UniProtKB/TrEMBL annotation, chain A:
Organism from which the protein derives: Streptomyces viridochromogenes (strain DSM 40736 / JCM 4977 / BCRC 1201 / Tue 494)
InterPro entries found in the cross-reference section: Bact_StressResp_Reg, STAS_dom, STAS_dom_sf
Keyword Phosphoprotein (UniProt): yes
Entry keyword set: Phosphoprotein
Lineage: superkingdom: Bacteria
UniProt protein name: Regulatory protein
Residues in STAS domain copies: 169-280
Pfam family, one: STAS
TrEMBL record, chain B:
Organism of this sequence: Streptomyces viridochromogenes (strain DSM 40736 / JCM 4977 / BCRC 1201 / Tue 494)
Segments forming domain STAS: 25-136
InterPro entries linked: Bact_StressResp_Reg, STAS_dom, STAS_dom_sf
Pfam families attached to this UniProt entry: STAS
Chain segments annotated as coiled-coil in the UniProt record: none
Name of the protein in question: Anti-sigma factor antagonist
PANTHER family noted in UniProt: RSBT ANTAGONIST PROTEIN RSBS (PTHR33745:SF1), RSBT ANTAGONIST PROTEIN RSBS-RELATED (PTHR33745)
SUPFAM superfamilies found in the cross-reference section: SpoIIaa-like
Amino acid sequence: MTVSEENADQEPVAQQVSAFLERRREQIAQRWADAALFRTVFTVSRDEAVEAGRAVAAALAAVAASGRLEDIRASGFEAVRDQLGRMAASRARTGLDPDGVAREVAALREPATEVLRAEFPDPHSPEAQECVVALTVLLGTLRLVVLETTVSAGEEVIARQREQLHEVATPVIKLWESTVAVPLIGTLDSARSQVVMESLLDAIVAERARYAILDITGVPTVDSLVAQHLMKTVAAARLMGAECIVSGIRPAIAQTIVHLGIDLGTVLTRASLADALAYALSRQGVAIGPVPAADAGAR
Amino acid sequence: MTGAGGNGPAGYGHPVAGAAGGHAFTVPVLKLGDILLVTLQGELHDGMAEQLQQDITDRIAHTRVTGVVIDISGVEIVDSFLGRVLAEIAAGAELLAARTVLAGMRPAVAITLVELGLTLPGLLTALDVERAMEMLTAGERQGEGSP
């Protein structure tokens, strides 16, 4: 079937489709309630599914009335955009991929066109065909709207999670009196190193820390940019009056740093977090040893 | 209004006018035993910073002090000029056998300085004045191994 209608014709046809959707809203909603998309989302009550179907049909009627059959930004869709997003999200949660969701939305076309065909005394008349084509175009647009909503919802989730990751991934831990540590996990980019620097400096003030340990055991790779971020953090901590120790440099990373010719000469480094803590403690005159036998017995 | 309003801008632009315009603007340099304590507050203009550098160097030369503590906890903006003046004060004091400790830098100031590339190497730093005094009286030096 080819879309052969011309723009001049589209207007009255679109109005016709709009009037049809208004008139037969209830009937279409009832049919849609049995379609896979509505049936699986509104499992609790059929009335709810019918209600949702009615809302979608009303929105389609509004879009058709405005004549913008192929415009996914048509204002008529706004009313149901949220609802469609929720439905698509609920289908996605059950493990359906976007392709599946699209197919389910496409399945809404058949019941609606059937109702439309029944409207005409002769379903094969050119007029009937034109209306069916217009409705098909409209439902194709609906499919795009659903997919677009799904994708933008996914993007929102990603943005929110990225933000959460920034907060979660940079805890500052107090290891001892005047000693704080930041275990860095994951790739260090400019945004993250900024967050690390800020939270570390705030912790230095809050804990009155003299020693700050940056543990990079969880940093997969160190390139010149990451090294630069580290050195900046170390320099800022020093300006606050705290001594910064970088620990957890794995052998492979140590070699990479040497190969790249990065000079970490100004930065105090230790092999492991334990070594760094031992250094900080010894500088504070704290010694940790085995508990004397008498005390151990008393416990 | 005209008198007060006229004084301010003149003080900003011309160091000489600022110094002459009011002694309320000069930074007090306190002597506590062997240590000079300088507390900077608010914005420090270029003229005042130069005046301060001169004051501190004079005081070290004429009195017997072994250390200088510059408290910048009340300073919200340190620009490259002030950063350089602070480094110069430290270098001058070093020549006169006194050690300078920069105390109480705010996190935001530290980040700005680092972003500007001013890491102030060779300058001793402390979290606050108390720590700075401790550091100078204990004769401990940052970055050197001591138990």
